[in-house]
């Protein structure tokens, strides 16, 4: 089974603390490494957790508040110093050019690779990247400025051919791929063997949804329905519900309500306000609504497996 893994590099919010780094995550999906958001110090976090910076495939920036983008200049510079030659694709709102273009002018001929900017649509869902095995899409969130969430998902895998059937019906190797894609088999004496006899279902597609920053927004539920893991911001506790509404952020309880409505399998909360030195209150409020909730933390790695409870390891 292909790797589908999420590493938390930072899960704090706008005001720096010594406890948490600004927002950033890495999604390792089918040997491609995708970054979501790039807060200040992200490249140091990659070094700390022994992640090869040059493996980075592309970046997805949810919105252009500083805590989500101030790590970009250093990361882009380091990639060039490491001799990257492959184009780097950055998916962000169009105003990202205000930051990127002066940086490219400043670096000039020292830049070893090209940057391709792709503008996000803040008003509707759209597909961003696709190959034969994975698909990445964006959808609108509810924040003070244009903000998007992201969905990383596998495409449906081919069926598994039953080994005993290969031997029993003497199926030629050249036909196995066709049968995995749904073809029937005709024996040498002309007997039709239906595909469902020869195969078992493929692995169910796995899905990871990322929602930060956003006010409570039930309208996002259709985009994240049945995700294996949902990362949803939980900046505040319920005692700061008014403040959450004023700043277009969510409480831990609201994040859990979204997870419950979307029938996701696992909820991870993060983007903690700097006012919380102890996060137990956030976890308690979330688990009261959605028991399968976990706190994000720098260095945590979430592996996604179908039909198996998700688990994490701590790389700190």
Summary keywords:
alpha/beta; seven-stranded mixed beta sheet; 2 domains; Metallo-beta-lactamase, Chain A; single chain; globular; 27% strand; 316 residues
Description of the molecule:
This protein has 316 residues and is α/β, with parallel strands linked by helices. The chain folds into two domains: 4-157 and 203-314, Metallo-beta-lactamase, Chain A, CATH 3.60.15; 160-200, no CATH class. The protein is 24% helix and 27% strand. The protein is built from ten helices and 19 strands. It has helices at 42-48, 72-81, 97-107, 163-169, 176-180, 195-198, 221-224, 241-247, 252-262, 280-289; strands at residues 4-10, 24-29, 32-36, 56-60, 88-92, 115-119, 126-130, 134-140, 148-154, 160-161, 185-186, 192-193, 199-200, 207-211, 229-233, 267-270, 293-295, 300-303, 311-314. The strands form four sheets. Strands 6-5-4-3-2-1-18-19 form an eight-stranded mixed β-sheet. A seven-stranded mixed β-sheet has the order 7-8-9-14-15-16-17, covered by helices on one side. Strand 11 and strand 12 (192-193) form a beta hairpin. Helix 9 packs parallel to helix 10. The model is unreliable at 307-311 (pLDDT under 50).
Compose a concise summary of this entry:
The chain has 316 residues and is an alpha/beta fold. The protein has ten helices and 19 strands.
Determine and state the CATH class of the largest domain.
Answer: Alpha Beta
Number of domains: 2
Secondary-structure class: alpha/beta
- CATH names the topology of the largest domain as Metallo-beta-lactamase, Chain A
Rg calc: 22 Å
Largest sheet: 8 strands, mixed
Arithmetic mean pLDDT: 93
